[in-house]
Amino acid sequence: MRLAEDQQRLEDAYQSEAPRLLARLRAAGRTLEEAEDLVHDVFIETMESLPVVGTIRNLPAWMNALVRRRLIDSWRHERVREAAGEVDVVEDTLSEIIAGTGLDPQDAFIRDSLADALNDALSALPPAQRRVVEAQVFGGLTFREIAEATGVSIDTLTARKRYALRNLSRALRHWLDE
After folding, report:
1. Each residue's pLDDT tens digit in the chain (178 positions)?
2. In angstroms, what CA-CA distances link 35 with 1, 15, 109?
3. Which of the listed residues 29, 60, 83 is the one where a domain comes to its end?
4. pTM to 2 decimals?
5. How many CB atoms are closer than 10 A to CB 12?
6. Contact between residue 167 and residue 129 where contact means Cβ atoms under 8 Å apart
7. What per-residue string of b and e applies to 16-32 under the rule 16 or more CB within 10 Å gives b?
């Protein structure tokens, strides 16, 4: 019975606090999508800690603290990525291509065609370059984490990513010319 009460308490907190948390994250400069992801992550983390929820006196304040920590972690991660010269390949590349062509990014055909071209371009990369891009873009790993996992130096990894970005850019520009 205690578990059901805790679950109801969490659901009530979600209903009352989610809009406030979203507004707070939006005011902190997050996009709506990023804010929703952070809020959902916090509620999932809280749901996974459901047995602990019963011991928390002020659940909204506790979730607010989790959101604050997640936001700070997000800022730190962004700062580290910027310092390392990392870019989000998919977002930056797609945005640049779409902006330069005047294409409507909401057009499903263009979006699907561009996604296919990006997948083809990723597949055509040399394996070492592809692994670096995939680890960073899809795996969310930093150069340091990849270096520790693979034993390859950070300088080598950054060079591989630079070459990969150049190759991807070239391949996607070719798609644009077609």
Report:
1. 577 888 888 888 888 888 998 888 888 888 888 888 888 888 888 888 877 877 888 888 888 888 898 888 888 877 776 666 655 555 555 555 555 555 565 566 666 777 777 778 888 888 888 888 888 877 788 888 888 888 988 888 888 888 888 888 877 776 666 6
2. 33, 16, 28
3. 83
4. 0.47
5. 12
6. yes
7. ebbeebbebbeebebee
Tokens of 177: 């010319």
- Out of 30, 62, 83, pick the residue that ends a domain: 83
Non-local CB neighbours of 35 within 8 Å, separated by 6+ positions: 21, 22, 25, 26
Containing structural domain, residue 119: 89-177
Q: Where are the beta strands (DSSP E) in 90-156?
A: none
Q: Name the residue among 91, 87, 113, 108 with its Cα closest to residue 174.
A: 113
3-state secondary structure 83-99: HCCCCCHHHHHHHHHHH
